[in-house]
Each structure stands twice: as structure tokens, then as C-alpha cells.
């Protein structure tokens, strides 16, 4: 059994929390763009409250542990591991609740190269507990605006986890999956479920637009977010996202394995 103390040490050692790779400059740019309601940073959340840049900094200081001083403009960001552990416990509680009622779930990631294994383990455990792990709209095209312009992507599933690929990408694993912040994949998946008349997910698990897009539509959503992803934390503050775990979302994929063991143990689910 992995204790919270051992996991805290791992978070710091792997730089999932503590001093992380995400730069202060990158985070401040995201906060500024969020305050300007740039859709690239809103990633599916339509804020109800007025969020200036200082408001966003204050929220991120409270939820993540980053510096609350707007004059601190350079260096690496910092995530408080205590906040990560508290959020992981809340995350595990939501998984346990879904498992107890055998709820249908939808799982998706915009970070397939880093986080696929983490989510796939959750999918396996929830499926073993009787949850239907939904895979709607597989193969459907999704047009996503990227820095290179509008690009068509294909919605796919690997081990029960949704991701998008660019057309022509070969392979069945995560290697050809594309990084995206867009909420369009989850909107496409949820629309397909509704069209088919099947059971809608009672819990959506993921990151980026998967969490924000689902939460904005009224679905219970939980996920992971870095210090430069303020939309998820705003969604949590405004009550549309249930749980957000603050951590670096782009370290080596094997560094997330202790987190998998921890949340599944806390949720009383077998891996």
C-alpha cells in the first residue's frame, strides 16, 4: 500500500509537484489569455464570473500553490504537493462513488503520450467494478483549430480511453495520438451517445477540453491539470468541474504509476 507520505515524496522527486517544469512565463500568459476570454485557453468553459488576470493568479495560488505575487514573472512554477494529495483523495472518492453505482463513464485525454496508461488503468478498474466504459463516435472526424490552422482529426479509443489522431496516422497505440486542448472531441462523443439513445456518462474523466467541455454541458467531470491550465480550476471554482488535481501533466508516463496505485487503493478498486 502506497502511503500519502510516500506519494508526497514521489511527487516531489518526479517533479509532478514542488518545482515543476512549467514556466511562470507560460502560466502568466495563460492567465492573461483566460482573462481576455481567448477560446484557446477557455477550452470549453464559459465563465459566469468576471475573471481578471489578478483573479486568476489568486485562484491558481489557492488551488495549486503557485506564487500569488503578480510581480513574480519568471522561473519555474511551484505546485504544493499537499494540495495535490487532497485533490487525489477527492478524485478517488468520485471513482469509488461511480463504481458503487456501476455508473457509465467516459474517459479521454489530450495528453495521450503521457497520460494514457494512467487513464487506461482507471478504465480497467472501473470496468471490472461493473461500470460501462463508453467509446462513442469512434472513427468520427473532428475539425480542431491548431497553431497550423484548422485540421481534421479522428476520434479513436485505446484501452477504453479516447484520444484524437491526425488522418493517416498509423498504429493502434498512443504514439500517433495528438496533443490537444480542444473541447470538440468530448462534445462529439457526448452528442453521439445522445444520438444513439444510449446511457449517458455519469462521470467524465480526463484533462484539458475533455473535462471543461463535459463540465460546461452539465456532466460530472474530474481530471488533472497543470499550472498553465486555469480553465479547469475556474470550472471547479464555479461548480461545473467536480475535482481538479494540480500536477505537472507532461512528465514521463511511468511517473504516474504510483498515482494510479494510490487512487485505486483509496477508491477500493483493484488495478
UniProtKB/TrEMBL annotation:
Pfam families per UniProt: Phosphatase
InterPro entries: Phosphatase_SCO2771 (IPR031423)
Source organism, top-level taxon: Bacteria
Name by which UniProt lists this protein: Phosphatase
